[in-house]
Automatic annotation (TrEMBL):
It comes from the Eukaryota. One of its GO terms (biological process) is positive regulation of transcription by RNA polymerase II. The keyword DNA-binding applies. PROSITE patterns: BHLH. The keyword Repressor applies. GO terms for molecular function: DNA-binding transcription factor activity, RNA polymerase II-specific; protein dimerization activity; RNA polymerase II cis-regulatory region sequence-specific DNA binding; RNA polymerase II-specific DNA-binding transcription factor binding. Its main location: cytoplasm. This is Max-like protein X. Keywords: Activator, Coiled coil, Cytoplasm, DNA-binding, Nucleus, Phosphoprotein, Repressor, Transcription, Transcription regulation. Residues 53-111 form the BHLH domain.
Length: 222
């Protein structure tokens, strides 16, 4: 009776140990791995934070780009005068980007034309200024020569004689002009003027008129 009782006791203890090991392994398997969990816990927020930073940086860059474009269009609309003068059909509506660009192109082309025109005017003024400088130098030389030799001007022609010469030339021209020009209509006047110039204002004709007037005045003076 002692052996069977001892055998039963050992069997009962083995069963208890086996069940304890089973419970321990089950409990151990049910408990999460703290090292792996800690590792996943630290890595996942880092990945999300990196994505968020990239997304935020991209959003900020896009907003900055759009802001720069909008500012550029606003500046163009403020600088270009024609953008402020909105068409009647548009009314108070905001100008589209296409219209702003087209008006800007038109205004730039207008400025190029104005610049070319002003450059031509400046070139003409420079030529005039150069001619005036040459005339100034010549007159200064004439004045200096007259101051150095004041006696040379005693025999010069008076203004009255000059006027008589001019009057004689103009009287002769007016006689031919009055005889040749018709004032019935503007068309006839235009045609007659050109015809009179071609016939009576040739260099040889003018030379003969001037010589005749001078001979006439000479005979009157002397």
């Amino acid at each position: 009776n002692l052996l069977p009782a001892l055998f039963m006791e050992n069997a009962r203890k083995g069963s208890i140990v086996s069940r304890a090991n089973s419970i321990g392994s089950t409990s151990a398997s049910s408990v999460p791995n703290t090292d792996d969990e800690d590792s996943d816990y630290h890595q996942e927020p880092y990945k999300e934070s990196y994505k968020d930073r990239r997304r935020r940086a991209h959003t900020q860059a896009e907003q900055k780009r759009r802001g720069a474009i909008k500012k550029g269009y606003d500046d163009l609309q403020a600088i270009v005068p024609t953008c402020e003068q909105q068409d009647f059909c548009i009314g108070s509506q905001k100008l589209s980007k296409a219209i702003i660009l087209q008006k800007t192109i038109d205004y730039i082309q207008f400025l190029h034309k104005e610049k070319k025109k002003q450059e031509e005017e400046v070139s003409t003024l420079r030529k005039d200024a150069m001619a005036l400088k040459i005339m100034k130098v010549n007159y200064e030389q004439i004045v200096k020569a007259h101051q150095d030799n004041p006696s040379e001007g005693k025999d010069q022609v008076t203004d009255e004689v000059k006027f008589n010469v001019f009057q004689g030339i103009m009287d002769s021209l007016f006689q031919s002009f009055n005889a040749s020009i018709s004032v019935t209509s503007f068309q006839e006047l235009s045609a007659c003027v050109f015809s009179w110039i071609e016939e009576h204002c040739k260099p040889q004709t003018l030379r003969d008129i001037v010589i005749g007037v001078l001979h006439q005045l000479k005979s009157q003076l002397y």
